[in-house]
Design a protein that fits this description.
With about 110 residues, the protein is mainly β. The chain contains one helix and six strands; from the N terminus they run βββαβββ. Strands 1, 2, 3, 4, 5 and 6 form a six-stranded antiparallel β-sheet that branches. The longest helix is centred in the middle third of the chain and has 9 residues.
Length: about 110
């Protein structure tokens, strides 16, 4: 009988002008309309000589979070990966400073105001 390996997902999304890259074991379309549900965060093991400050910041930010809901328009990409990688927060370049305005995904009647 084959043992099924737990799936690991890399989720990349925008948050307050930064690009977040997280690894998690649970990703789904949540019960809240317009949000992706992410849980089961995977962080690297302590004990190494090198400590990544970006990953440590993410670890402390999500330390007591069981599940987070990410707005659909903030998600850049979700990949299923073979193994976890480095979690990180990246600054967007000066050229990429774009403010995303919330937009409705669903409009009643399928059309805007006439």
């Amino acid at each position: 009988m084959a043992v099924r390996k737990k799936r690991i997902y890399k989720v990349i999304f925008h948050n307050q002008g930064k690009l977040y890259e997280l690894h998690a074991t649970e990703v789904s379309q949540g019960g809240m309309f317009g949000f992706i549900e992410v849980g089961g965060f995977v962080f690297g093991e302590k004990g190494g000589l090198l400590i990544d400050p970006s990953e440590e910041r993410l670890k402390s930010e999500f330390e007591h979070v069981k599940t987070t809901f990410i707005p659909l328009h903030a998600v850049v990409r979700i990949d299923e990966v073979e193994k976890e990688g480095a979690n990180k927060i990246s600054s967007l370049s000066d050229d990429a400073k774009v403010a995303y305005l919330p937009s409705p995904i669903y409009t009643p009647g399928g059309r805007g105001k006439d």
